[in-house]
Amino acid sequence: MSSNSGIQIPSRLPLLLTHEGVLLPGSTMRISVETARNMHLVKNRLLKGTSLKSTIIGVIPNTRDPEYDTEDLPTLHSIGTAGLAVQVVGSNWPKPHYTLLITGLCRFRVAQLLKEGPFPVAEVEQLDKLEQYTSPDEMSEAAGPDGELGELSQRFYQAAVQLVGMLDMSVPVVAKLRRLLDSLPRETLPDVLASMIHTSNKEKLQVLDAVSLEERFKKTLPLLTRQIEGLKLLQKTRKPRLDDDKRVKAFACFPAITFSLDEEGDDEDGDDTAVLERKVKGANMPEPALRVCLKELKRLKKMPQSMPEYALTRNYLDLMVELPWSKSTTDCLDIHAARVLLDSDHYAMEKLKRRVLEYLAVRQLKSTLKGPILCFVGPPGVGKTSVGRSIARTLGREFHRIALGGVCDQSDIRGHRRTYVGSMPGRIINGLKTVGVNNPVFLLDEVDKLGKSLQGDPASALLEVLDPEQNHSFTDHYLNVAFDLSQVLFIATANSTATIPPALLDRMEVLQVQGYTQEEKVEIAHRHLIPHQLEQHGLTPQQLQIPQDTTQDIISKYEHKHSHIHRGCFTHARSVAGQREEGSDYRSKGKRGRRAEEPDGVSADMAAPPDMPIVIDHIALKDILGPHVFEMEVSERLTLPGVAVGLAWTPLGGEIMFVEASRMEGEGQLTLTGQLGDVMKESAHLAMSWLRSNAKTYQLTNLVGGSDPLEGTDIHLHFPAGAVTKDGPSAGVTMVTVLASLFSGRLVRSDVAMTGEITLRGLVLPVGGIKDKVLAAHRAGVKCVIIPKRNEKDLEEIPANVRKELDFVTASNLDEVLNAAFDGGFPGMSNPLTLPHIVSKL
């Protein structure tokens, strides 16, 4: 390396091969790095280097066609530019790549290629020397007034001044370029201006190869003259618009600016920006949002389209224009019409319908009422989502569903900040953009299944959305301006409130959507499910009929969902299609259904004409769906002491639960099985302690006749369906009854089911899910249900037809529970025939 070099570069440089252009000394260029060879250079040299020297690389123009580029190192161009990597940006979309911002320092010649992999490294010879770079006055004196180099330098300088003078000096980057012409050494002007003006890569390559300063001036001066003539022609053709600042496109990062001579493309870009400006002003957005948009629009006008930030700013402005700042729909406040529509869409659900009608009634009195935050809680399949859609139809509003199950990033709610690559608004703002109005019905589905991760807590982000006192100024991170959500009607759905954070639950009005009775399920099936499935399978009621008795069997003896109706329709759709094609109907063989007028005992050969409907009876049902899934076995399971029926609540609804106990000789240990939670285990120990303390009162003995039931005895308490996790306090009364039956040797009544929490003093405390539990007992054929005394108020929610078929015993202590659970009362009580409070056939 020369000792008098002004720009000192290492004698060995890693080489970056680029197809994207020619980097000249004094210019700055963005280079996309995608090839494996260049990726290795960035990772191993630029990203791992710690000194300024490690950021200097050699940039070599690659003249090979990139379509035919291979893994072999191409023939290197002999002249390159040493550049300083001032910025490295990485991205994984659409594939892993880096973008480098390189500033050219000086020329070099490749003396020897030292290695090819994983990236090329060469020994280089620096070409631009310090003694060439002098001030304008010094150069004129050195070259002499008549020197050819001095004359070329002066001509080039005058042409550069003329070119800049033809531009709009009000543009800051043009004014800065004019000042630099007087301050930069004349020798640097050819490289700097050649990188700015409109030239081809081939012409820039010729300038790069011009090592001699005189040759460099000669190569660049014609390019500068051509640019001047082009601008003169452009001014003549656009005479009425001479003052238009669109004569120049200025890049934000000096000195990389490009002058565009493409008048058609320039006009198109200007017109597009003008259209966007009109849209911004006509969007009726609030004043703060309008100020932000106009500021971004002003930046966009000064920004070249090739910059990455141009697309980001344009996308932001497009979103701001499309948002419904002041667009809304008019609510339909006809209460009678709303009632008719709700009744036609859904059967039962009286509480939900009443709440919607109350909202409409209040809206009639006060038009500025903020939308309530409703939360429908109930098992899957009861119609929570479809009710939300019906509410939107009733009000005449747009409907949008946002699925929150599994969401664990708060940016899904609040959006990403625009500083991130691939940023986008949150689901709330995206939903408003989709529906196009600011007062839709938003259904936040599965709000109880929100997750939490390192990216934040989306449940906490929803606090602002669902708070009527805050959501009038909801700020999405992407928009960074407030948007009014107060007119949006939010409806959330959940299977359980246990997993919803208390702060979020407090902002919502919880409406329980509990399970249906047998009769309601039959009615829903014939009003909605069966007609829908017939239509989906291309059938008509004249081709297939499902009587109510068959529907009752499907509900009670198979899975509690409508998929079996689908299977029946599919089976007969297949047979109808087969009949049309083959002229035969395999259903006539007596296996898949009977003709409507086919009497019992008629052979397949005497089947009714094919235009008669098929009726699915209990015989055909068994052939289509197989053996019964559910067999009511309550009476069969309660044939031995130590078994009782409890009632449990699950997210899928109520269920009956058999609790079994057995005893054997041992050391007084209590064993619990059936995947029980901590609360249920504690309830079992409570039940055991209460019975031991009252053993004499109830005449309970152990295996050897002692008064302590656990003396010399081990107890095993089991809850069947061991694969299902169970927890909760409501099985306490059932455990006491089971253990009392085991120690006394008496059978528990087979038509009794019970639920309730217990205390160590024998009190029975209230529990939840009474309606679902009672419906489960009714489905199982139970005739008597024991519930806590303080749950008597919950019996009003149970349908009247179910209450008529059941006897309800409301107990306030365990004495009353045991007295009702055994025939004739339980031994040891002061008056065993005195029954507790009975609410019979309410």
TrEMBL record:
| Limits of the Lon N-terminal domain | 13-228
The reply to whether Metal-binding figures as a keyword in the UniProt entry is: no
Record-level GO BP terms? protein import into peroxisome matrix; protein processing; protein quality control for misfolded or incompletely synthesized proteins
Q: Which GO terms describe its cellular component?
A: peroxisomal matrix
Q: Biased composition, Basic and acidic residues: where in the chain?
A: 579-588
Question: Residues that bind ATP, according to the entry?
Answer: 378-385
Q: Per UniProt, what is one GO molecular function of this protein? A: serine-type endopeptidase activity
The active site annotation covers 730, 773
Gene3D superfamilies in the cross-refs: 1.10.8.60, 1.20.5.5270, 1.20.58.1480, 3.30.230.10, LON domain-like, P-loop containing nucleotide triphosphate hydrolases
* Localization per Swiss-Prot or TrEMBL: Peroxisome matrix
The record's listing under SUPFAM superfamilies reads: P-loop containing nucleoside triphosphate hydrolases, PUA domain-like, Ribosomal protein S5 domain 2-like
What are the start and end residues of every segment in region (Disordered)?
574-609
- UniProt EC number: 3.4.21.-
Tell me, in a sentence or two, what this protein's role is: ATP-dependent serine protease that mediates the selective degradation of misfolded and unassembled polypeptides in the peroxisomal matrix. Necessary for type 2 peroxisome targeting signal (PTS2)-containing protein processing and facilitates peroxisome matrix protein import.
Extract the NCBIfam families matched here: lon
Indicate what this protein is called per its UniProt record: Lon protease homolog 2, peroxisomal
Q: Which organism is it from?
A: Oncorhynchus tshawytscha (Chinook salmon)
